[in-house]
Design brief:
With about 170 residues, the protein is α/β, with parallel strands linked by helices. α3 packs across α4. The longest helix has 12 residues.
Length: about 170
């Protein structure tokens, strides 16, 4: 499916999967995951994560270059390991939605490590506060965050969550 980002003052950016990658995917067996699914012993995919907490998906993303159809990125999901590790991409569904979905669909899984982005790069103070307040109530011990979390958000979370070890991976 076509995907674009439209940031003010910048040219429209095509985020559609490259043709060569799409060709490879057409040649392999793919399975659609529609809910929490064990794909290997002790390894689960969430499937699409509902947006219920009011978190935004992190940017001006669209299904057309004109910006007429918003892309809520419904196909993004997370990978859970039984040991309490969650690996995700940019977490466009929001970390609150993602962890709540995991808690609801796999109540015995306890998050201890989060690896991936939080897509807070353009989050306002209220969103950062809501995220930090939520994370304080979890059992997360380590967060290894990607660039899309944003430097400002990483510093805010480090200050607000001193009991969680927070690292950022830079490319």
């Amino acid at each position: 499916r076509n995907r674009f980002s439209r940031h003010p003052g910048k040219p429209v950016r095509d985020l559609t999967i490259p043709a060569a990658s799409a060709d490879i995917l057409r040649k392999v067996q793919c399975m659609e995951i529609n809910g929490m699914t064990e794909i290997f012993p002790g390894m689960f995919l969430t499937g699409p994560i509902p947006r219920v907490s009011g978190e935004t998906w992190g940017g001006p993303f669209y299904c057309d270059p004109e910006g007429k159809t918003e892309d809520l990125i419904p196909d993004e999901q997370a990978l859970l390991l039984e040991e309490g590790i969650m690996i995700q991409g940019c977490c466009h569904a929001g970390i609150i939605n993602t962890l709540e979905f995991c808690k609801k669909n796999k109540p015995d899984w306890i998050p201890r490590t989060v690896i991936g982005g939080l897509h807070l790069i353009s989050a306002d103070h209220n969103r950062l506060r809501k995220t930090a307040d939520y994370l304080k109530k979890t059992e997360i011990q380590t967060m290894i965050l990607l660039h899309c979390t944003g430097e400002k958000a990483v510093e805010f979370l480090k200050n607000e969550l001193p009991d969680i070890k927070i690292l950022i991976l830079r490319s």
